[in-house]
Design goal:
CATH superfamily of the largest domain: P-loop containing nucleotide triphosphate hydrolases
Mean pLDDT: 81
Strand content: 25-35%
Largest sheet: 7 strands, mixed
Structural class: alpha/beta
Number of domains: 2
CATH class of the largest domain: Alpha Beta
CATH architecture of the largest domain: 3-Layer(aba) Sandwich
Order of helices and strands: EHEEHEEHHHEHEHEEHHEEEEEEHEEEEH
Number of strands: 19
Low-confidence stretches: 1-6, 261-284
Radius of gyration: 28 Å
CATH topology of the largest domain: Rossmann fold
Distance between the termini: 66 Å
Length: about 475
């Protein structure tokens, strides 16, 4: 980390310029030994030099700055370079090229027990880490009890940290970092190890630090956490910075890269023009025609927002072919909390069927059902189709869900003659990932109950005012 602090603007906490990190990847351990000696021997005899490794670029030419007091979230797929970036900002790794400059005191929570000596007790590690952060010993002594109380590890504070669980590691590491008067707090995904209670406690502490002017640099895979904590989002992909801006567009860009844009699919057996093509500027194309253009091709798994971990059930009488959120062709399903939206589905019937129903179910990441409905419960109606019939359904809903990511199950089924049991033709469980965005600072939970409040003094009630 550069010490040229005087070159930084007074309102800049971190300046990253052209940051690049290259690693040499060896296929076999002996190749490393060959690389140490053979190129030199080859040069002595005038032979052409050879390499026994391949380059891996963890980061490529990353440039951005963070202002004092700003909260910036870094988001990206696994292997995109997020942790490497944070480690170089904290001075743990040396960049191949480029520079990182920061005049402020950085407290980092990058991995479990980072900076802890496993043989030392929790108490000893508090003082060791605090001194590393630059906190005088007398100040550490005055804050010791606050750190212990926040960590909530009880008598284990006097035991070697090698005996701690992962949750205890995190609690103590975060407590030390957050009570070290950091000007910049750098947090990797380590908080995801703690339980829900501790995570909420940490987020409250982060809010307190931000109110005091602390700068936050936060790495996460959770889009709702980024929306809740951060003013700005940076998206990394394959080591490159691909987006830097407001959090909502950052989440949209991240999801687009995770789930992919729509791909060109051409079925050679289909009539000319039956393939699905992405056409820039064709936003006015009717969504029904767009779904119809795929013919009987099963395009479901090629769509952004498809969950490759879906579970599929049914007897094959019908097939769920395709889906989209109306007006969002080519994008992962992203819906604002409180907005109305339409989920469109396409099915083909492989055999004749009567007493048909179409349904959806929405669940949280933990599997909690938050909404479930079908055409019979909503319309009190059953349908019948012949073999070869292709059907497009529209499910119009108002999104009362609060920010987060949800899994949608879709399916086509049949009521039995008694109207009690349902037999699945094709049920795609947790097949679509829908992201809900909104302002999490106002309400929390799963659903927006649209509370209206009225506060009255008791004296006004008694007096009739």
């Amino acid at each position: 980390m550069s010490s040229e602090h005087d070159e930084l603007s007074s309102d800049v906490a971190i300046a990253v310029e052209g940051l690049t990190k290259r690693y040499e990847i060896y296929a076999q351990p002996q190749d490393r030994l060959k690389q140490m000696f053979l190129p030199k021997l080859r040069s002595l005899i005038g032979d052409k030099s050879a390499r026994y490794y391949r380059d891996f670029w963890a980061l490529r030419d990353v440039t951005f700055s963070v202002k004092r007091g700003e909260a910036v979230g870094i988001i990206g797929r696994n292997g995109s370079g997020k942790s490497t970036l944070l480690q170089m900002i904290c001075g743990i790794l040396t960049p191949t090229t480029g520079s990182v400059r920061s005049p402020g005191r950085i407290a980092a929570l990058l991995e479990l027990g980072a900076g802890f000596n496993p043989e030392f007790t929790g108490k000893e590690n508090i003082f060791l880490s605090g001194l590393v952060y630059g906190i005088p010993e007398d100040v550490l002594k005055s804050r010791y009890q606050d750190i212990v109380d926040f960590a909530e590890i009880g008598d284990h504070i006097d035991q070697p940290v090698k005996t701690y669980s992962s949750g205890m590691y995190v609690r103590l590491a975060f407590a030390v970092a957050s009570f070290s008067d950091p000007e910049i707090l750098v947090v990797d995904e380590a908080l995801s190890v703690g339980d829900v209670y501790f995570q909420r406690k940490c987020f409250r502490r982060i809010d307190e630090l931000r109110e005091s002017g602390c700068t936050l640099l936060f790495v996460t895979h959770s889009s709702d956490t980024l929306l809740q904590l951060c003013d700005r989002g940076i998206v990394l992909d394959a080591g490159r910075l691909v987006f830097d801006g407001p959090t909502k567009p950052a989440v949209a860009e991240y999801l687009r890269r995770v789930f992919g844009t729509r791909i060109n699919i051409i079925d050679d057996s289909a009539p000319s023009g039956a393939g699905i093509h992405r056409v820039e500027g064709a936003a006015e194309e009717d969504d029904h025609l767009h779904l119809a253009a795929g013919g009987r091709q099963e395009l479901f798994a090629s769509r952004p927002g498809y969950n490759r971990g879906e579970v599929r059930l049914g007897d094959g009488t019908a097939t769920v072919l395709d889906f989209l959120v109306k007006g969002q062709r080519g994008d992962s399903p992203i819906v604002n909390s409180g907005d109305k939206f339409c989920l469109m589905m396409k099915y083909v019937f492989n055999r004749p069927a009567e007493r048909v129903i179409f349904g959806i179910q929405i669940r949280t990441r933990e599997g909690l059902v938050v909404y479930s409905a079908n055409t019979f419960t909503v319309e009190n109606k059953l349908y019948g189709y012949a073999a070869g019939d292709v059907v497009i359904s529209e499910f119009n809903m108002r999104n009362s869900l609060l920010p987060g990511q949800y899994f949608i199950t879709v399916g086509v089924s049949q009521f039995d003659e008694s109207g009690v049991d349902i037999g699945a033709f094709d049920r795609r469980v947790d097949s679509i990932i829908m992201t809900v965005i909104g302002d999490m600072r106002h309400t929390n939970g799963l659903a927006d109950m649209e509370m209206d409040s009225k506060i009255t003094l008791e004296t006004d009630v008694v007096s009739g005012n």
